[in-house]
Amino acid sequence: MEKNTKFKLVSSKKTRYLLPNILTLGGVCLGISSIKFSIDGNYSLAVIFILFAAILDALDGRVARLIKGTSDFGKELDSLTDFVSFGIAPVFILYFWDLNNYGRLGWAITLIYSVCCVLRLARFNLTKINENQLWKNNFFEGVPSPAGGLLILMPLIFELSSIELNINIKSVVPYFTILIAFLLVSKTPTLSLKKISISSGTTVFILLGTGLIFISLLFYTFETLLIFGFLYLFSIPISFFVYKKQNKKDNLETSEDEHEDVL
C-alpha cells in the first residue's frame, strides 16, 4: 500500500518562520524598486517605497519575536535586506537626483555612505549585551540603517514637500550625506525603545497617536517625514545624555555591589 505523502515547503513546526522572512523580502523588493523609480525621475514614489521598506523592517523583527519565529537565517536575511534597502537604494536615489552633478566626488560620497552602512550592519550583528546591562537594549550604537536611509533623503523630501523657503537645499546634500554616514558608524547612542514598557493606561493614547501619524502621512506625506526627521536628529543629543546618565548609574550600582561582596 502506497503512503500518501504531501509536499511541504517547510515542516509544520517551522511554518512560523515564513511570515517574518516574507516581510523582509518585501522590504528588499521595495528598496530595489525605489532605485528604478529614481532612474525614471519619479522621486516621490521612490521616497515612499523607502518609507514602506522601513515600516516592514520595523515589523518583521517584532512579528518574529511575537510568534517565536526568530532564526539565524532570518537575522542574516534582515541584514542583507537592510543593506540593499537603506545602504544602497537611498543614496542611489540621491545620486540620480543631485550627487551625479558633482562627478567623481558625488560617486565617492555615494560609496562612502554605502561602506559606512555595511560596516554599521556588521557591527550590529556582532554586538552582544551583557545580561547585567539589559537597559542597553533601548539604545542603538550609532544611527540605525533604516533611520539613516530616511535621514539622507531629507533634502529631497524637503524639495518634494509644499514648504517654500528661499533655501538652496541641494547645496547641503553632499555634507549632509557625509554627516549621516559617519553617524551610522559612530558610537553615539541613539534611542531604540525595543524593550520599553507601556502601561495599560497609555495604550489608548499611543494608539490614537499612531492613528494620527498615519493620517498625517496619508495627507501630508513629505511634510510629516520632514518633521519626524528633525525630531529624530534632535533626539540624538537627548539620547546621548540619557545613555550617559543610565551608564553612570549602572556603574555606581556595580561598584557598590562589588564593595559589599568584599565586605
Mean pLDDT: 83
Largest sheet: 2 strands, antiparallel
Strand content: under 5%
Strand order of the largest sheet: 1-2
SS content category: mainly alpha
Give the beta-strand count: 2
Distance between the termini: 76 Å
- Our count of helices gives 9
Global morphology? globular
Which H/E pattern describes the elements? HHHHEHHHEHH
Brief characterization of the structure:
The chain has a domain at 85-262. The protein contains 9 helices and 2 strands, in the order H-H-H-H-E-H-H-H-E-H-H. Helices cover 69% and strands 2% of the residues.
Question: Can you walk through the features of this model?
Answer:
It is a single chain. It is built from nine helices and two strands; from the N terminus they run ααααβαααβαα. The chain has 263 residues and is mainly alpha-helical. It has a two-stranded antiparallel sheet. The termini are far apart.
Blueprint of the fold:
Layout: H1 18-39, H2 43-66, H3 72-97, H4 104-126, E1 139-141, H5 145-151, H6 154-160, H7 173-185, E2 189-191, H8 203-219, H9 221-262
Antiparallel strand pairs: 1-2
Helix pairs in contact: 1-2, 1-3, 2-3, 2-5, 3-4, 3-5, 4-7, 6-9, 8-9
